[in-house]
Amino acid sequence: MGLVIYDTFDAEKKEFIPVKQGHVGIYMCGMTVQDRPHVGHMLAFVCGDMIRRYLEYRGYEVTYIQNFTDIDDKIIARANAEGVDYQVIAERNIKEYFKYADMLNIKRATVHPKATEHIKEIIEMIGVLFSKGLAYEAGGDVYFEISKFPSYGKLSKKNLEDLQAGARVEVGEHKRSPLDFVLWKGAKEGEPYWESPWGKGRPGWSIECSVMSMKYLGETIDIHAGGEDLIFPHHENEIAQSEGATGKKFVNYWTHNGLLNLVGEKMSKSTGHFFAIEDIVSEFEPDVIRFYLLSSHYRSPMEFSRERLAESRAAVGRMANTFRSVEAYLGDYKPKGSVEDLTGKDAEFWKRICHREDLFRQAMDDDFNSAGAIAQIFEIAREINLYISAPETSGKKLVLARGLEKIKELGGVLGLFKSLGGEIIRLEELPQDVRELVEERAKARKAKDWATADSIRTQLASMGYHLEDRPEGTIIRK
Ligand SMILES: [Zn+2]
């Protein structure tokens, strides 16, 4: 069997068959940009990025859409608190997102659409929902009428009666039923607004994702990703809107990542626990954070602690040692020739590497088991470490060079070890500002001022330069 993906809707692993042969459309629910990203956001985006990279490695052409919710109550509240326009808040946090996404080696989406750039399409879709009898107007707002969409609750496996019993109508809402959700929200005095057939207002949270996924990926999409906390109500609402409007299946594979637990508590906006990614990158290298985020299967809940991050740092450090050993052994050697022509021990070594690559693929084919795949990369490193000290053979340099390339290639499929494989740059080749920072850091290290040294290292990492301190001096990679 080829690739299988666990689909939350059908609650089982299914063979992956894309809508369009050779192509995959993925929609990832992006950030509501009222604040800077925290590590819980980044877990979802790293998982989505890993899925995308693997599908690309498997030869698919991937269209990856990740939105920004750039208008909502919290953004407006933040803007009012700071006395600025809501766009100032949104733009600032979008910039922050890209800064940390780049550091964590999360590729840019094919398109990063924003809610406010799709108001016209949102109004059109609400119009369609009206024409199908699924929407109604009340008190200046527009709502989706859940009772008209009987399969509501299927994704989250929730019973409508139970949901109804648990829900309540907030003050100021005019819903027919507590479960009905807002499609268009009438503007209060002083709030930003757009004109619509139902008066001045702004879109509800979920409608944008239905509109944008359809616009960029079509009426039925292959994979819809996001954190498990979005299943209800957000993704349930997306299904109701999209399938209500088109009458077609909205998503073939729902992939939901498990959540991070910080001291046993869910890391989300609502709990008030806020572990900003900027705090974490000041203590741990981005490569280490990404490694940690992929070190468990994406559907498992993860314990988030310094201890776990320190374990990841040690693992990345072991991989760095393998890189160093091979580089030291190879010296100026430039690999030439084909691994196909190898004989004896060299050929046997290469066969073992290829076997590990097969196992890597098998792990990833099994619902993107990144933890299992990482284990296979470390098995390749173990083979390499052993072979370095093996007796000299005619093809030893070639297979070790190719073996290291294999680690870089497979690591790259997961977006890992970016800082290890880069080109080594000499101090005098660095741009002036980078060189000054490296020298400043060297001085701080000499004075045992580790805090300053670490903060400069982080700054350099954000500029794309990675430092490795070795007994013979510091190595700089781009
Ligand atoms: Zn969404």
Your description of this structure?
The chain is of the alpha/beta class. The chain folds into 3 domains: 279 residues, HUPs (Rossmann fold), CATH 3.40.50.620; 116 residues, Anticodon-binding domain of a subclass of class I aminoacyl-tRNA synthetases (Four Helix Bundle (Hemerythrin (Met), subunit A), Up-down Bundle), CATH 1.20.120; 56 residues, no CATH class. A 4-stranded parallel sheet has the order 4-3-9-10. A 4-stranded antiparallel sheet has the order 5-6-7-8. The protein has a 3-stranded mixed sheet with strand order 12-11-13, covered by helices on one side. Helix 10 packs parallel to helix 12 and helix 15 runs antiparallel to helix 16. It is globular and about 80 Å long. The chain starts with a strand and ends with a strand. Bound molecules: zinc ion.
According to CATH, the fold-level topology of the largest domain is Rossmann fold
By CATH's scheme, which homologous superfamily of the largest domain applies? Answer: HUPs
Low-confidence stretches: none
What's the count of strands? Answer: 16
| General shape | globular
Strand-pairing-aware structural class: alpha/beta
Helical proportion, percent range: 40-55%
Bound ligand species: zinc ion
